[in-house]
Amino acid sequence: MNNSTEFTWHSKSVLEVQEELVSSKFGIDSIESIKRQEKYGKNLLPKVEAPTIFKILLRQFKNPLIYILLFAALVSILIREYSDASFIGAVLIINAIIGGIQEWKAEQGSHALQKLINIKARVQRGDEVLEIDAEDLVPGDFIWLESGMRVPADIRFCTTNAFEIDESLLTGESVSIAKQSDPVAESSILADRNSMGFAGSIVTKGRASGFVVSTGLNTEIGKLSKNVQQLVSGTPPLIVRMNKFVKVISISVLGFSLTLALYGHFIRHMPISEVFLFVVALAVSAIPEGLPIAMTVALSIATARMAKKGVIVRKLSAVEGLGSCTMIATDKTGTLTCNEMTLTDIKPKNGEFLRVTGQGYFPEGKILNHEKEVTKLEKDILREIAITAALCNEGDLHLKESSWVWAGDPVDIAFLSFAHKVGLTRQELLIEMPEVTRIPFEPEKGFAASIHYVGDKQSIFVKGAPEKVLSMCAVDLNEKDTIINDISVMASRGLRVLALASGELNTSVESLYVSVPNNLKFLGLAGMIDPPRAGVKESIESCHKSGIHVAMVTGDHQITASAIAEGLGILKKGSKVLAGKELEEMSEEQLQEILPTVSVFARVTPVQKLKIVNVAKASGQFVAVTGDGINDAPALKSANVGVAMGKAGTDVAKEVSDLVITDDNFSSIVSGIEEGRIAYDNIRKVIFLLISTGAAELVLVTLAILFGLPMPLLPVQLLWLNLVTNGIQHVALAFEPGEEGILSRKPRKSNERIFNRMMVERTIIAAFTMGVIGFFYFSYLIDLGYKIEEARNLLLLLLVLFENVHVGNCRSEKTSVFKISPLKSPILLGGT
Q1: ∠ CA(509), CA(514), CA(518), 5° rounding?
Q2: N or C: which end of the chain has fewer CB atoms below 10 A?
Q3: What are the CA-CA distances from residue 780 to residues 274, 291, 713, 766, 775 (Å)?
C-alpha cells in the first residue's frame, strides 16, 4: 500500500482500491490507524510561519545600492569622517523603516493551506461512525461525505448519491462536478477524474462514501504546496531593471574612483589621507544615496493610490510591475466572470429566443425579446417555465436583513433567481402547490423531478439534460428537430443547456424511481453561463490599446472558454484556442513560437499553467498572472507579478501573490496598470534628478583633482546637497500626477534599461553644465583670495540654486518645463 498518486486510484475498481489499501467498508481499527499515522504522518501540510518584523527589516538591506552605501559609510568611519557616516546611516535606517512597515502590514493574516486541512471528518471505524479531526485521517480510512462538507483528503468514491463537488479552487471548473464510483480512464486529467474527490473541495449536493487514498503532502493540494515551496518567485520588472542599473553604477564608481585615486597619489603625489577623502567624496557624489528612500516613497504613494482603486499591494516592488507587464495570463472563473451561474437565455417551445438580464444570483433583471420587454402572452409562457424552475429545485434564495443570501447547487440558485425575475418565489409556490416528494438529480438518470399537489391532483415538474427531458415529452418529429437545433445554437455559444417539462402525474410515485415519466408537456430550454463581470470587456480593450497581450488560462471546456473570450474581445480573428492536451504534447520551443497568437488556453492543469508562464517569461515577456484558486498558486508565485482575487480568492492564492484585487474585478487591474506606469515614470524622474546632479558633483570633484585645486566640497556638504536639497525635491517628484495618455503608450521593452539613451544624453548635458560652471566659479573665488571655507559655502549655495532650477527639467521627458504649470504639482513647488 502507498500514500501517493503513483497508484492511479481513479482508474481502479473499488475492489482493487480496497485490496491496495488493505482496508474494507468497515474502515480500519484504531490500532491500525495509529500504526499508519506513524508511517505516513498527520494529514497536514507544512506550516509556514509569518516572518517577524525584524526579518522584514533586514530584508530591506538586500539591495546592491545599499551595499555600496554601507561600504561608503565604512570608509567614512575608517578615515574618521563620522558626520558622513551618520548621514549615510540615517538614510539606510529611514529606508528600512518605511519599506519594512509596508511589507509587515502586508504579511499579516492566516495561512490557507493549513486551514483547508484543519476540518472534521466522519469516519467508519468498525460498526460505528465517528467524527474525528481531519488531521488524524490515514490512507485506508473509510469516510462519509454530504452536502456542505469540505473534502478532508483525497478520496476514491465507493458509493455516490446525486453527489456533486465544487472543485473550482483546484481545477478552475465554473460548475459543480457530478461524481461517480465507477473507474475512469487512466489518462484522464485532474478535472475528469470523476471517481475521485480532492482535499479542500466542497460538496454542493448529495451524499457519498469512499476510501482515503492520499493525505497531507501526497494530496493534490499537497503536491501544489510542494511545487509552490520549490518555485523561485518571479522577479518584478523594477527589480530586474534596478539590479542592472545599480550594477552599472557600482562598477563605474569603483573603476572611476580607483583610477582617480591612483592618479592623485602617484601623479599628483597627494597624501593617502587626502586621496581617501577624495574617494569618499567621489563615492558620495556618484552614488544616489536618496534613491532607496525616493523609490520607497514613490512606491508607497502608488500603493496608497492603488488601494483606493481596489488593489492591495503586498510587495512594494510589485507596484511598478503591473505597469511594466506585457502579458496578462488571466483566470476565467471568478476573475473575468462572476463565478455565479446565471440564466441568460430562455427558449420557450414554439417561441423566440429571449434574453434574461442581470448578473450572478441577484434576482434583479428583465426578460427581453429583441431588447424589448416581453408581451403578456410571452409572460404567461414564462410563468409556466418559472414554476417548474422554482418547484423542481433544492436551492435556497431569500432576502435576509436587506441582503440576498443563497445556498445550494449553482444551477438551482440560478433557476430561483430567474423565477424571482418573473415574479415568483419558491416559498409562495409551495403554499399553493405543496410538495409530495422529489427525485434528486443523478448523473445516471440525467434529470431531477418534483411532485406537487395542484388542486386535488398530483403534477410532476422536471428539469435536466435536454435529450433526456425531450424523451419524456409528447412532441412530433418536426418539433423535436426544431428543439434539437435550438439546443445546438445555445450550446455553440458556450451555454449550459437544460430543458424543462411538466404534466399531470399518470403513474404512481414509487414507479418513478425505476422508470421515467412520459407524455409530459415540453416547456422550453434554459441557457446558463458564468457571466462576464461588468466593465471587464472595456478593461480588456484598454489592455489591447496599451499593447498588453491578454490570454485566458482556464480549466473550463473549450466551447465555454471560447464563448466567454469572444464576448469579452479576448478571442479575435487569427487568435488560437489551445487545449491542455495539445499543450501537453508541445515542447517549450514550440509553445514559445505560437504563444503570441494564442489568446485562450482551455482545460489547462496547474502544471500546464505554470509552463505557460515560464515560457512567456523565457521569451522576454513581463508576465502578470491573475487567479483565485489553489490551482493558480504555482503560476502566481512564478509570474513577474502575481495578482490574487480578494473576495473569492483562496488564502493560498493571496499568500503567494504580490497584489490582491479587493473587488475581484479584472477592471481594477487596468487601474493598477495606470498607477504602476505613473510610479515608474516618477521613479525615472527621481533617478534623472539624482544621477544628473550627482554626475555634476562628480565632474566638479574630478576637475579639481585634475587641476590641482583643493576639494571644492567636503563629503558632508555633498551629502547635504544629495540628501537635503535633493531629498526634498525627489520626494516631491514622487507625488507627481500622471502625464496624459499614459495608458495608450505601448509597454516598455523587457530589455529596456532604466537609464536609457535619452536619459544618458540629458544627464551629460545637465552634469557638464552644472559641474563645469561650478568648477570655474570655485576657481574664480580662490583666485580672488576667498578663504577655502567661504569659497566652498558660496559654491554650495550656487549648486543648491542650480538644483532648484534643474528639478523643473525632471518633471517630464518629452514636455518642456515651460509648458507644465508649476501649480500642477503644489508639493514640488512648496518643496523647492
Answers
A1: 65
A2: N
A3: 23, 33, 15, 21, 8
pLDDT digits (tens, 9 = 90+) for 487-534: 999 988 889 899 999 999 988 877 777 778 889 999 999 999 988 888
> Side chain identity at 749, as an amino acid letter?
K
Convert the pLDDT of each residue in 590-621 to its tens digit. Answer: 999 999 999 999 988 888 888 999 999 999 89
What is the DSSP pairing of strand 435-439 with strand 202-214?
A: unpaired
Q: Are 626 and 669 in contact (CB under 8 A)?
A: yes
For residue 281, give every residue at least 6 positions away whose Cβ sits within 8 Å of its Cβ, in sequence order, or none: 701, 711, 713, 714, 715, 718
Alpha-carbon distances of 19 from 12, 30, 213, 333, 587, rounded to whole Å: 11, 19, 12, 39, 39
**Amino acid 116: pLDDT:** 41
Packed helices 726-733 and 666-706: angle between N→C axes, nearest 10 degrees: 160
Backbone φ/ψ region at 508: left (φ over 0), alpha (ψ -120 to 50), beta? beta
Rounded to an integer, the average pLDDT of 283-310 is 74
d(CA 270, CA 710) in angstroms, rounded, equals: 11
What does the pLDDT look like over 337-393, one tens digit per residue? Answer: 887 889 999 999 989 999 999 888 999 999 999 889 888 888 888 999 999 999 999
Question: Which amino acid is present at 291?
Answer: L
Nearest Cα to Cα of residue 618 among 600, 597, 639 = 639
Tell me the pLDDT band of 332, cut-offs 50, 70 and 90. Answer: confident
Burial class (CB in 10 A: 0-12, 13-18, 19+), 349: buried
- Confirm whether 783 is a catalytic residue: no
- The 3-state DSSP class for residue 566 equals helix
Q: In one letter, which amino acid is 329?
A: A
* Catalytic residue from among 141, 154, 166, 331: 331
Among 296-305, 578-587, 760-769, the minimum mean pLDDT is found in 296-305
Residue pointed to by grid coordinates 527589480 = 239
- pLDDT value at residue 289: 61
Comparing 17-26, 76-85, 143-152, 463-472, the range with the smallest average pLDDT is: 76-85
- Cα separation, 657 vs 459, in Å, equals 53
Compute the average pLDDT of residues 10-15.
93
Reduce the DSSP state of residue 439 to 3 states and report it: strand
Strand, helix or coil at 804? helix
C-alpha torsion sign, points 222, 630, 578, 495: positive
How far is residue 518's CA from residue 89's CA, in Å, rounded to a whole number?
Answer: 86
Q: At how many degrees (to 10) do helices 666-706 and 536-545 cross? A: 30
d(CA 176, CA 204): 7
How many angstroms separate the CA atoms of 341 and 418, rounded?
11
> 105 or 689: which carries more pLDDT confidence?
689
C-alpha cell at 283: 563615492
Q: How far apart are CA 771 and CA 87, in angstroms?
A: 23
The alpha carbon torsion through 792, 795, 797, 799 (nearest 10 deg) reads -130
Taking alpha carbons only, the member of 572, 641, 542 closest to residue 329 is 641
Q: How many CB atoms lie within 10 A of CB 232?
A: 7
Interhelix angle 82-107/64-78, nearest 10 degrees: 150
Contact (Cβ atoms closer than 8 angstroms) between residue 72 and residue 283: yes
Residues 6+ apart with CB under 8 A from 784: none
Q: Is the pTM of this model over 0.90?
A: no
